[in-house]
Amino acid sequence: MQDPHSAANPAVAKAVHLDLTLDVDFDRRTLSGTALWTLDLPRGAGTATFDTRGLDITSVDVVTGKGKSRAKYRLGADAPILGAALNIEVPTGARAVSIRYKSSPNAAGLQWLEPSQTADRKLPFLYSQAQAILARTFVPCQDSPGIRVTYNATIRTPAGFEAVMSAIRDDEVTSLPDGRREFRFSQPHPIPSYLIAIAVGDLAQRELGPRTSVWAEPSVVEKAAFEFADLERMIDTIEGLYGPYAWNRYDVLVLPPSFPFGGMENPMMTFATPTLLAGDRSLVNVIVHELAHSWSGNLVTNETWNDFWLNEGFTVYLERRAVEALYGTSVARRQWTNARRALRGTCAAMSATPADTHLRLALAGRDPDDGMTEIAYEKGALLLRRLEFEFGRDVFDQFLKAWFATHAFGPVGTELFLAWVRERLCAGKSERFAALRLERWIDGPGIPDDAPPEDLGVLDHIESQVASFNATGALPSAEAWSTDEWLRFLDLIDPNVTRAQLTLLDEACGLTLRRNAEVVARWLEVGVKHELKSVYPRLESFLMEVGRRKYLKPLYGALALVSVSGLDLARHIYARSRPGYHAISRATLDKMLGFEGGGF
Ligand code: BES
Ligand code: ZN
User: Fold this and answer.
1) What is the pLDDT of residue 398?
2) Of the candidates 127, 102, 135, which has an alpha carbon nearest to the alpha carbon of residue 15?
3) How far is Cα 237 from Cα 228, in angstroms, rounded to an integer?
4) Which phi and psi (to 5°) does residue 370 adopt?
5) 290 in catalytic set
6) Among residues 201, 217, 396, 591, which is most buried (max CB within 10 A)?
7) 261 lines ligand 1 (CB under 6 A)
8) If we measure between CA atoms, which residue out of 448, 445, 231 comes closest to residue 322?
9) What helix, strand, coil percent values describe the chain, rounded to 5?
10) How far is CA 56 from the centre of its chain?
């Protein structure tokens, strides 16, 4: 299976282990050092190909039993998204290649933050985000999810910093004669390159349980420990459903607010946005989701980004099952119901490009980031829900457990999934399999009509309250509402309600000043659509601080559409916030708001 987003040719030379030695330079905003790659060379010799993007390659050596010598290498043409292939001639007898290099200050996979962009404003901060194909911007690697490697790393930082990685950290930290610090890491399980991760900053750790802890800046770590107190129980729950946790430890790192995602499932060390710290544990499903990737995604991995749904759809399904076991059926049912509504909206919004609503994608020639839509997540999860209902929960759980056990530390593709459904769920019976007509899910658009019926009962009370609010402005009795109840309510507010009605709602329920970012963001969106000026100060401070793309897109989008002055305001705020946003969020918003060549 050739990965359209990687130049690597594992049939000739496959990377199996990485020894990484890097210096972290905050002044120059570079990582520099060597990537020593142990290779598997089935034909004994040939060209080893690595993906790179924006790397400055200083020298390349080959390592044989007898020692090191200069290698012949060639850097291919540079393409905008894929970067440049690094081709190294590997002679017979070679075991490894050693690449000396430096990352660019603009590496899209790294974000270098000023102290002012951190919670404690004391030290600068660095973090990486490699998924989908950004690892190549800070390590030359075979950047395909179908290729797995173990790694060891030695990381040198200035004095006063802590470094963490998606790996086990040595207890011992060495202080070098010049005051710099040296950290050592090892990832003994083979992982795809998109799970290589590093963060460096002023970090503190708080133990939570025998195999869990949280990391964050000192002023944030106690809040994080409170919010994520259930970590150990979360692991136990998923283990009970789908088999043992394969990764020794599970820690969560809470990053500064510019982190472009809710969470990223870096093995042993989930990276998370501080917007999860609602103070009442109401957004922990995101952590359940990232933890669930320890089975779906990190253990059993989509072989190319065309099969992204096998990572994310499976993970959303596992997330909801774990939420159900941990927090109750009605919480899980509300999440399914809200997600279904969102999926319907996404499918409608994507009706001009129906092929993007298929589960199996064709991303060759495109940025794999284009495949990161609600489809992989919610249509994928819904297909598994459909199969659960068809075959019964017990049978389906055994199926999933066997899927993870059989394909552990390996790649999976959509064809394999279909073969498994046919053999294991349909007992090899072709008619039974054909009757499922899975091709409508896999290679067809939208939500097929055999999708499980929508479970409206759990949010009925919201529908009736929002109906009276819309009609008369009657305020809801919302004291004990959960995130999902609020999201439903805010979603169903009529475009014709008056600003006076909304002002009364805000005064009664304190929406603008809430700590739950999910609710605040949705409320601000309602405010923007009604040009409710009283929310604009909060809107502006939210956009200036938070870099999570999921919130930026709808908020800037709503501003840009609501009026000419809304678009002006969007551009004004964006011009000021943009330097603080991550490259991933910037790429999306530049396109959306027409920011080109450094200005509007
Ligand atoms: N792996 C994803 C994040 C990702 C996907 C990064 C594709 C880069 C490319 C992560 O597991 C994720 O899905 N995060 C979600 C939260 C989740 C609860 C849906 C997010 O960040 O919002
Ligand atoms: Zn995910």
Assistant:
1) 98
2) 135
3) 15
4) -60, -25
5) yes
6) 201
7) yes
8) 231
9) 40, 25, 35
10) 27
Nearest alpha carbon to residue 210 among 241, 235, 243: 235
Q: How far is the CA of 261 from the centre of ligand 2 (A)?
A: 10
Our answer to whether residue 536 is catalytic in this structure is no
CA–centroid distance, 264 to ligand 1, in Å, is 6
Strand locations in 298-397 (E): 300-302
Return the ∠ at Cα 166 (arms to 256 and 207), rounded to 5°.
70
Taking phi over 0 as left and psi of -120 to 50 as alpha, with beta for the rest, 268 belongs to: left
Atom of ligand 1 nearest to the CA of 550: 22
| CB of 227 closer than 6 angstroms to any ligand 1 atom | no
The yes-or-no verdict on residue 1 having pLDDT over 80 is no
pLDDT band at 597 (very low <50, low <70, confident <90, very high): confident
User: Is there a contact between 380 and 316 (Cβ–Cβ < 8 Å)?
Assistant: yes
First to last CA, the chain: 42
Give tens-digit pLDDT for 67-113. 999 999 999 999 999 999 999 999 999 999 999 999 999 999 999 99
Taking the CA of residue 290 as reference, the ligand 1 atom at the shortest distance is 11
Amino acid at 446: G
Does the beta carbon of 191 sit less than 6 angstroms from any atom of ligand 1? Answer: no
Stated pTM of the model: 0.98
